[in-house]
Amino acid sequence: MLLGGGAVLPLALIGYPGLSEPLSSVGWAAAGAAWTAAAYSMMLCRAFAIAAWQASVARLGANRVLVYLYLVTLVGVLASVVLLGDSLGAGKIAVAAAILLGVYFARRA
Q1: pLDDT under 70: residue ranges of the chain
Q2: How many whole angstroms from its chain centre is CA 8?
């Protein structure tokens, strides 16, 4: 999350094509409040995710839990289709099917 946030920070400051205004034109008070809210949300989500992951590994074992790590990519692609309006082509469907099939076979073994 921190690396991804740092990677998009320059785009937030100078503006991104398709957005109405760059962050620098919003004002320091509003920008500070937005960054504070984003940081709080990010840390809260991160803390929950790490706690849930550690509880799962402790309860089920690393070998059984690690196979679900591949679903993170699938959820990211589906979120981009639903939230950002990305296209869902045959390639994405084929990769999603391969991921699901791999998780199924790994869990079955």
Answers
A1: 1-5, 8-9, 11-28
A2: 13
Parse the chain into domains and list their residue ranges: 1-60, 61-109
Q: Shortest CA distance to 67 belongs to which of 56, 77, 78?
A: 56
Q: Report how far apart, in Å, the C-alpha atoms of 6 and of each of 2, 3, 13, 39 are.
A: 6, 5, 11, 12
User: In the 8-state DSSP scheme, what is residue 70?
Assistant: G
Taking the alpha carbons at both ends of the chain, their separation in whole angstroms is 33
Torsions phi, psi for 89 (to 5 deg): -90, 180
At what angle are helices 90-108 and 71-84 packed, to 10 degrees? 150
* C-beta of residue 42 within 8 angstroms of C-beta of residue 1: yes
Whether the Cβ atoms of residue 6 and residue 35 lie closer than 8 Å to each other: no
Structure confidence by residue, pLDDT tens digits, 23-42: 566 666 777 777 787 778 77
How far is residue 2's CA from residue 83's CA, in Å, rounded to a whole number? 21
